[in-house]
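Request: How about a record?
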Amino acid sequence: MLFDQFVQEAWRDHAQDTKAVAARLRGARELMTTAAHASPLSRLIVHVFGEHLGDWDSGERELQRLQQHPLCAHDALAQSALRMAQAALQCARGLPIAVADLTPPERIGALCAGSAVALGREEPQQAAQLFEGAVKLVHSGVPDSAIYHRPMAVAANNLAGALCDLVGRSPAQNALMLRAAQISRTYWDKAGTWLEAERAEYMLAKVNLAAGQLEQARPHAVACLSICQANQAPDFELFFAHEMLAKAARARNDTQELDRELAHAVAAYTRLSVDDQAACKGDLDGLMTPT
């Protein structure tokens, strides 16, 4: 089996048969043909052994074996990815990371990856602590580099989304949710494309609505649609932009805007493929159902 095929199948199967995929990962080193394979393999190891199984020791052992692999032993990029992966497992399990062994971008990457693991394990307080540690490092004057801006954007978005789904949020959790969404938007500007920026505006509108900040939600929904229009976005993106504007209008009891945006959302929905319509059906039904 080719390495890329192995990775694709492991991601496909891991949620349904986690232990079997973990067993397969123990032999994945034999499929490597380049040091560049260390990075995607390390992400799988952290996700499967850490987030799904909580088998920290086995995960660290697999990463250590990768570090000693002939293809990786003297490759700087591979060793960097593996150091970050090991540190991510350590901080996700609540252990201090060996700061002296990591560059600032590696520390940020590790904290963000650890935050994602904690979120997946339904430990939002731990996720928030790791996330704030990454934010502090970024703000401390690390050189401008997408190496840590992208993980920062991803971790912030994931944290905002997880908190948005949390029932009975406290005022402090609401504040963290809004802060995380704004930080994600900031760093997608540095590390992403118009698509990530547009979806970050969607998230900002969503969390402001969830926090009851109705007037603040609408400008972000408008920005989401404006980015779509400026970049000739596909109908899938346009559907969600209009859907969010409709939700914001409904929350403000603006029936005129609600009717207009609902019509635009329906029009975009009718132009979607069958698969995309299936993905959007629940959101469309929610719009059609008065609350």
